[in-house]
Structure formats: structure tokens, C-alpha cells
Amino acid sequence: MIEIRPLNNLSVHLDRLIKGRLWLKVIIGLILGVGLGIVINPSTGLVSESISLSLANWLDLPGQIFMRLVQMIMIPLIFASIISGIVSNTSENLKTFGLNLLLYFVFTTIIAITIGLVMTLIMKPGQYVFNLGGFPSSGENLIEANEQTNLIENIPDTISRLIPNNPLESMLMGEMLGVVIFTIIIGVAITQLKKETVRPIIRFVEAIQKICMIVVSWAMMLVPYAVFGLMAALLSKIGIEIFLGLGYYMLVVVLGLILLMIFYLIMVAVFTQKNPFKFLNLIREPQLLAFSTASSAAVMPVSMKTADEQLGVSSNISDFVIPVGATINMDGTALFQCVTTLFMAQAYGIELSVINIVLITVTVVAASIGTPSIPGGGVIVLASVLQSTGIPIDGLIIIIGIDRILGMFRTAVNVTGDLTACVIFNKFFGSDKP
Length: 434
Fold this sequence. Notes:
- By secondary structure, the protein is mainly α.
- Helix content is 79%, strand content 0%.
């Protein structure tokens, strides 16, 4: 006689399978959210537009709560983590480490932009999009010499503005780059104090860090529901025809991001002798969270936890690299901005000279450093890149419709870049102590 197990026994096994596997919960939420979003999209005719909008608002609620919880503790966590990372290093080690990290981030950003340039110039996605708004002929949109001069003259002013004259204002406005630079300056100043003076500061910073991580652990309970709601809300508002119309452009961006990901894996294999596929397997949770939230800032605490516990990175390395990387190491965003700028130029029929392309590269490097690590941050900064290169920004309206989808891919790549930097710098600067 065959024994039939009660359903509650089967559910126990299912719970055991899913328990502790955030990545699996995220995938389930992602798939279910996509399915529901397509069903409640007004274009299917199953629900009216008003009902679809109402459902989308409610479905979006867990995601909004999650994002606000993370953003609430983001500045204290960045402040505490960077100071902890700086104080953990000796002053001489910090000079070498900090300079090498900056050069590394600039190097990987240039690689990302180069991949974007080559992909766009070869595949020419802009030639397949027409009627972006009937703007003047290409000759009237070309970059004038005086505009280039003005941009060059503004560089010293831009550099001076990197140091915030009012740190509290930067914190209130959410200007992460200003917060990071202020925190680095304070952290370096703390290393000049006597040990007796520093000890209570370090205890206070550690307490802030632990409190922030407790709040993050609460927020993480919402992640599967947040992913489900965000995806359902997104696909209920965006028409399928947008993806079909700009599919080739999206393909170029995604292929470029895949090539950039392969570059990271090669770096991991060459510099750390780690198996790149094992590395990918260990970082799947922050990657999936980045893909679903499209926010580097939201993933930062999970990235730090993964670096410490899964990748074996010294905490003094991850505490410094990941907060700084989440703010200034936006390789995926830089690639996206470069591809989109050339795509817009091709769509408007604007011929770009070598000087123009070099200027775009420099502008994108600078712009990607200041890109907010929030959903849609890439498009916000992209407007300034287009303006500086004489390309009409009106065409951005067609990019905004698909930006959230592309943002998910580029944020996953950004987070991978930060974790790649962690394992590489841990190889050369990390301690053997876990």
C-alpha cells in the first residue's frame, strides 16, 4: 500500500528549500510580478486603465517601503563604513590604497565607455529609429568650439565644488558624492588623532554600523514582495510596443553590459586566481537584488555582507570600497550613457568627429562619477551629457520609457564591479584575518 504524505509535510520541505535563499525568493517574485504586470496592463483589455493604475499603486507599496527604509539609513551607513575602513588602515597603506582604488575605478570606467563606443559605432542602433522630433539638420547641432572651451573652463569650478561647503545640505539633498568626500576627509583627519581620543569615536561608529545593518535586515524581509510589486507595477504601466520599437538599441546596451561583465570575470581570474563562475555564484544575491531594485544604494549593505561572508574579503577593505564604489564606480551606467549619447546622435543624423567622441568620453567619465545611485539616476545625468555635446535632449522621452528595464541590467553590472574591486584589492591590501 502506497503511503500518501499529508500536504503540510510537503510544505515543510518546500519551506526548507526556500528558507535562507534570498536569490530564489527574488526570482520567484520576479517571475510572478512579470506575469501579473502583463495581465493587468490595460493593453490586454482584461482590466480598465483606472483599475490598472490603482492596482499598480498598491503593488508598488512594499517596494516603496523597502526603498525608503534603505535610503533612510544610507547616509549613516556610508559615513560609518567609510570611517571604519579608513581608520582600519595605516596612514601609509591608506595613501597607496586610496590612490590605487581611484585609478582602478577610472580605468574600469574607461574600459566600459570604450566597449560602449565600439559596440555603438559597429552596430549603429540609431540608424533604425526615425522621427525623434523633427529637429534641425545635423550641421546646426554640431558642437561649437566655444562650447568645448566653456566646458573645459568649467572643469576647475566643477572640481572645487566636489568639496561640499555645507555637509548637512549635501546630506539633506541626498548628494552622495559630497557626503562621501566629506566622510573621507573626516576619516583621514581622525587617523591623525591620538589612540585615546579615537577609541570612543570608533565605538560610536561601530554602533551606528550595527544599527544600520539591523534596519537593513528588517528591510530584507520585504525584498521578495517588493520585487514582485515593483515588477508588476512597472509592466502594468509600460506598453509592450516600446520594447519592440527600441529593441535593437536595448540589445546593444545589454550586449555591451555582458561584455563588461566578462571583463570583470577575466580580472577576477587573472588577479585573484579565483574561479570566475564560483565568484558569480557567490554574488548572486546582491546581483539579483540590484537587478530587481535598480539601485546601487539599496544593495550596498547586502554587497558588504556578501563580500565579508561569501568572498572572504577583509572588512576594512569592503567597508571602504563598497560605499565609495556605490557612489563613484558606475561602469554600467557609464556604458549606458555612452551608448545612448551616440544612439541619439545617430538618430538625429549628427556626425561626430574624433574630438567630439573624446569630449563625450571625458564628459561621461565625469558624469558617471556623480550619478545618483537611485533608480533613474543614469537618465538624470544623461541630460547634462547630451547638452554638453550639442545633442537635443528632447529625444530622452523615448529613453525614459525603457530606462527602468535597462537600469536593472546596468545596476547589476555596477554591483558586480564593486565586488570585483573588493576581491582584487583584498588580494593586495587585505589582511589574512577574517
